[in-house]
Amino acid sequence: MSLPTARVVTIAGSDSGGGAGIQADLKTMLALGVHGMTVLTAVTAQNSIGVQGIWPLPTEAIRAQFRSVIDDIGVDAVKIGMLGSKEIVICVADLVADLDPPVPVVVDPVCVSKHGDRLIDQEAVGALRTLMFPRATVITPNLDEAALLAERSAETPPVLADLLLAYGPAWVLIKGGHGDGDAIDYLKSRDGRDFGFAAARDDNRHTHGTGCTLASALASQLALGHDVPEAMALAKTYVTGAIAAGFALGSGIGPTDHLWQLRAYLPPLE
């Protein structure tokens, strides 16, 4: 019997406030009609105003979660988010390398939170480049993360993409949400094809979890059988709507609305 949906596993940290991390990944996957599974890499104390604490999980716990779901349920795509330490990067890179058959792998190299909190140490940055990027179908840094990873500041997205492609991913997506003007995401492949995905910048400040949401949407569309440019176009449409519908929650930056496409069918709050 064929499955009614594709299967996507997210390997990432938890956001106790529910706007980013594994919580955002699962909401995105559900909204896009795929079955989400989780491998938790870290627990965070986090809310709308910042990150108050981070507790990485031991690598044996990460490995056990991965083997538990993959060996029994299987997987059609992998989304990787916050890893935090060199040891965790090495662990996850080894797990992904052992997937048979291989599946699309989307790596969101989470370096800094929306509130400016550092989420990865310097040794882990080097391990991301040398161990994780060669195993990635797509990596999805924003402009600041791309500059950090490429060790080059004040470069254009095409230049940063070329520098990061040298580390081995099949595709690099430079997210333009932190720039000025329209939000233009730049996608380039190892064989030189490139694409731009533009959307008018929304002045809504409630954008917590945007990067996690886009990477999860991209992984979901790849799991459903789309190629990378098609998957990115669909993911861009989804995240643009989620940003426009982002809402205030707490006293700081609220989350994107993962259910924006379904709001017309949901009962309003009294």
In short:
Helices cover 36% and strands 20% of the residues. The chain has 270 residues and is α/β, with parallel strands linked by helices.
Summarize the structure in words.
This protein is an alpha/beta fold and 270 residues long. It is built from 8 helices and 9 strands. It has a 9-stranded mixed beta sheet with strand order 3-2-1-4-5-6-7-8-9, sandwiched between helices. Strand 5 (105-107), helix 4 (122-132) and strand 6 form a beta-alpha-beta unit. Helix 2 (59-72) runs parallel beside helix 3 (86-97) and helix 5 (143-150) crosses helix 6 (157-165). The chain starts with 6 loop residues before the first strand and ends in a 26-residue tail after the last helix.
- Report the radius of gyration as a whole number of Å: 17 Å
End-to-end gap: 43 Å
* CATH superfamily membership of one domain: Ribokinase
Strand order of the largest sheet: 3-2-1-4-5-6-7-8-9
Biggest sheet: strands, sense, closure? Answer: 9 strands, mixed
What's the architecture of one domain, going by CATH?
Answer: 3-Layer(aba) Sandwich
Can you tell me the residue ranges where pLDDT is under 50 for at least 5 consecutive residues?
Answer: none
Number of helices: 8
Q: Structural class, please?
A: alpha/beta
H and E order: EHEEHEHEHEHHEEEHH
Helix content: 25-40%
Compute the average pLDDT: 92
CATH fold assignment of one domain: UDP-N-acetylmuramoyl-L-alanine:D-glutamate ligase
Strand runs, count: 9
Instruction: Output the CATH class name of one domain.
Output: Alpha Beta
Categorize the overall geometry: globular
What is the beta-strand fraction? 15-25%
